[in-house]
Queue: 2 jobs
Job 1
Amino acid sequence: MDDNAQLRITVWPGLPVPLPCYQRAHCRLSQARDALLFTYDKDELVEPRGETYLELYNLDLENPDEILAFANRHSVLRGEEMFQRLKAADFFQGLGLRQSWTATFRKWHRPVYEGAYRENLLSEDRPPHRGIETLFEFRFAAHVLRDMTSSWRLLSAGVDPRSLPWSGWVTGGDEPSYSSARRLLATALPVLLRNYSPVVGVGSDINLDESWQKPLISAEFPGSSAPLFEVCAFELFNHIAESATYRICQNETCGRPFVRQWGRSEHGQSRREGVLYCTADCAQAQAQRQYRRRKQAK
């Protein structure tokens, strides 16, 4: 190897991998507005579009109604399951936290969960829901995914760290930097995707007389559906793999980052070149807003 050779590290497989499905949830807020009571629709498996994590990225996590609306559009995040997985992988070791996350969950999550469980069990005006997700654990998962997204934006495009959403909530309040971004992505993302393994589909029967078909590269995962936090992590991984470019929606009331614009046809196709808005609805809303301004100015 000569002195001019460069070592390039790339992620497998260098192109987007088909995403796992997730179960849609039907939710309502607890009376104290601190937990989601939800029921899965077993027959409704959702194929993600690939940018659920970017919708979560712009969510107001202090607003229970926005969290409820997101959960009803998609599903609950299953934050406690994410926490247990990170904890088992010693993710929190070495962060220098003043208080362990185990104690934090015990203080802020368990009492709310138990109160919502009693409310759900004793409800007389409606049948009990099958599951409970406290807003604390939802926010925990959302902050992990949000900080990982900001980490990739920082590392891939050199965005000013001060301009990025960064909670530092999970990692002890550290400031966004190249070192903290590298540490978070290198440690958390593999843990969240550890249940998946690469699969190359070439068909069971090989017939030399048939026309050539490109093998399908996918990721095998256990079960028929995945928790939403895994789906969001996989969406981020896909955008890392394809070196996707983030754009900011120019709709004044939106402003969320996106990669592809959706909803431009009855078949739901997407496109990524020469677009200013995350969805056709945002484009139409901004066009109508500008039309009203021009009409008023005349």
Job 2
Amino acid sequence: MTQALVVVFVFLIFTLVAAAVALLMRDLAGGRSATLALSEGHTVALRPQEPAGEAPRGLIRGLDDQILGWIQDSGLEMSPTTGSLVLAFSVLFFGGLAYVASEDLLTTVVGVVIGVAVPMLLLMMRRIRNLRYIQRLLPDVFDLLARAVRAGQSIEQAIETAGQRAAEPLGREFRTCSRQLQMGLSVADVTRQLAGRVRLLEMRIFALVMGVHRQTGGNLTLTLERMAGVVRERLASQQQLRAATGAGRFSATMISCVGPLLFLYMFLFQFDYARRLMTEPAGQVMLLVAVVLEIVGIIWVIRMLRRD
């Protein structure tokens, strides 16, 4: 066995041990998430609720909740433990591949960074696409709830009807709400938990409306119909904004990708130049300045083009 393979093998062992210790500390800190079983065989992860006035429990708990939130938003039926293991595998793969190819510490660090960035980027892309799809389904679901209430059903029966007729994944979420109502939870609590699982502004407004209606009453049918109309108008304005800023977003994306792609080309096909850039003091300073300016430019463009 060569020295490189021995180093990679030791690196794998230490990384797996570190991942196991981190997961154990997370479970001991109370970060294990509860799951709600569904009759279809699926499970929905529920993030543990913090008691009022309790301080956060640390970095591990916060990271666990953040990863679980991203996984829920992406629509993947995956636990935080599985997500952490996928991330660790990606880091091991890219970091080990970079070390075997170059046997250089700085190159290995670059491979580790790529191993962290690739799954996170894929998860964020899946999250954005899933939330946009759910947002497009919301007006029809609100109209369905309004028609059910207008037909004489209670809000609990309307939620059950939405679970049976709404498109997935909202249908699954409303079926979960229906089962929670059958277990004795109030409509306000159920819709608040629904807003915690589907983290959209429209869903938070829906939960607020349900809570206020339970306390003060009112014409729920008219309120739901107006909510459906407002969501449709908001979606139309977002589509107009995306069409108006399409050229700017495409230009910003192309400009942002030129630098990393050029460095990747040099790293793969002209490694001597990239190695000097990463080992010489002047090259390291230039590389650090380039990375900082790239990040600042991306954040600046995103803030200018965001819909808010």
